């Protein structure tokens, strides 16, 4: 990626998909070039949380909402220390943000962090194209002297694909750290960071849990060195088929019977640990408005998603696994994709979406309480 930031809003920009489709617009954020996987997010708000979610590493996010940047950027809502998307695509960026917490414009924040974007694009047409053709590699090029279309397309097709990408260690913490419990400490949880969002350990801390966040390279011995009452596996980027090390660690946790909770990438890790396969979705689920049914209660939740891969597990039966019986606990009502797993003979479960409500909604907050109940039951 090469970038500069001066006068970006007046500079021409081009978005080139690997199948040859081209969209033209204006530079938004930094000026330069960038590459990644083109995906679309259906949320109408929460763009700051999306940008700073490590799960979006190496992805170019297309916002389906036409107006983006209305509330500016604040200093409270970031989910990590930096923006992780490799590029950003919007239709009509806000000219003047309006929110009492806003400190700067979204354009300024993207430029400051060197994130190349494009505005003035027909994002509806682009989203329809990605739904029909599937997520694919893309490049954004901006500047007053752009390469010819053939050169840009060749560069896009040389970029790495998401399938087969092992990315969690690139975004995870390098050193362990502790998020203390709020109020009385009730439990200790070892959280394996595969791309964790800041709100996730906070939600556990609210429930009296001291969270030890460990690097993606943590071993089973590292996990149990903190004497955990439960183990958590976070969200993260990349292809779960490459995540042999986290799968091995999770199997070690399952063998010991410690209460276990996984979200997003952690759900895919549990699927693999149980012996199920994973596969790449055509265009994935991204946004804060995805309908999921909790099959254990029948309740339908509106949930936050960011995943391009899914677990291949049977929806219509209980499966036998090396760790006892398992079943699909949650399913997406749009396409019947597996959105959660639970073991029936051990205290372990996972969901494919984000219950930490950053940014919203709050329908799935009960899952942290379910994790607490597992630890209470194990202690009893």
Q: Could you describe the 3D structure shown?
A:
This protein is an alpha/beta fold and 380 residues long. It is 23% helix and 33% strand. It contains ten helices and 21 strands. The chain has helices at 47-51, 106-112, 123-133, 149-158, 168-171, 199-205, 220-225, 244-256, 265-273, 366-379; strands at residues 2-4, 12-17, 22-29, 31-41, 59-63, 67-68, 87-89, 92-93, 116-119, 136-142, 177-179, 187-192, 209-214, 230-233, 260-263, 277-294, 300-312, 319-321, 324-332, 338-343, 348-351. Strands 11, 12, 13, 14, 15, 16, 17, 18, 19, 20 and 21 form an eleven-stranded mixed β-sheet that branches. A seven-stranded mixed barrel has the order 2-3-9-7-5-4-10. The N and C termini lie far apart (54 Å). The mean pLDDT is 96.
């Amino acid at each position: 990626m090469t970038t500069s930031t001066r006068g970006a809003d007046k500079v021409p920009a081009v978005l080139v998909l690997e199948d040859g489709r081209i969209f033209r617009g204006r530079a938004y954020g930094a000026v330069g070039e960038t590459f990644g996987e083109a995906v679309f997010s259906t949320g109408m708000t929460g763009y700051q949380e999306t940008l700073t979610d490590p799960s979006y590493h190496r992805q170019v996010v297309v916002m389906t909402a036409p107006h983006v940047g209305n509330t500016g950027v604040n200093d409270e809502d970031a989910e990590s220390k930096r923006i992780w998307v490799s590029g950003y695509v919007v239709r009509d960026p806000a000219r003047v943000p309006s929110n009492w917490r806003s400190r700067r414009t979204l354009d300024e924040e993207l430029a400051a962090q060197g994130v190349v974007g494009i505005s003035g694009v027909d994002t509806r047409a682009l989203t329809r194209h990605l739904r029909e053709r599937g997520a694919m590699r893309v490049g954004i090029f901006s500047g007053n002297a752009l390469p010819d279309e053939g050169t840009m397309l060749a560069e896009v097709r040389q970029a790495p694909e998401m399938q087969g990408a092992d990315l969690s260690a690139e975004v995870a913490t390098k050193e362990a750290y502790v998020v203390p419990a709020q109020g009385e400490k009730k439990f200790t949880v070892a959280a394996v960071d595969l791309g964790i969002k800041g709100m996730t350990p906070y939600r556990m801390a609210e429930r009296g849990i001291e969270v030890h966040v460990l690097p993606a390279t943590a071993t089973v011995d590292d996990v149990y060195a903190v004497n955990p009452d439960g183990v958590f596996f976070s969200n993260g980027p990349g292809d779960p088929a490459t995540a042999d090390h986290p799968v091995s660690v999770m199997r070690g946790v399952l063998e010991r019977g410690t209460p276990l909770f996984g979200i997003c990438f952690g759900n895919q890790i549990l699927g693999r640990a149980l012996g199920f396969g994973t596969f790449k979705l055509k265009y994935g689920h991204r946004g804060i408005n995805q309908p999921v049914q909790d099959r254990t209660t029948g309740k339908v939740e509106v949930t936050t998603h960011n995943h391009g891969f899914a677990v291949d597990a049977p929806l219509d039966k209980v499966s036998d696994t090396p760790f006892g019986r398992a079943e699909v606990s949650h399913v997406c009502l749009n396409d019947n994709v597996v959105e959660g797993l639970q073991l029936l003979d051990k205290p372990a479960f996972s969901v494919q979406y984000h219950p930490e409500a950053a940014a919203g909604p709050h329908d799935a907050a009960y899952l942290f309480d379910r994790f607490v109940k597992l630890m209470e039951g194990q202690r009893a």
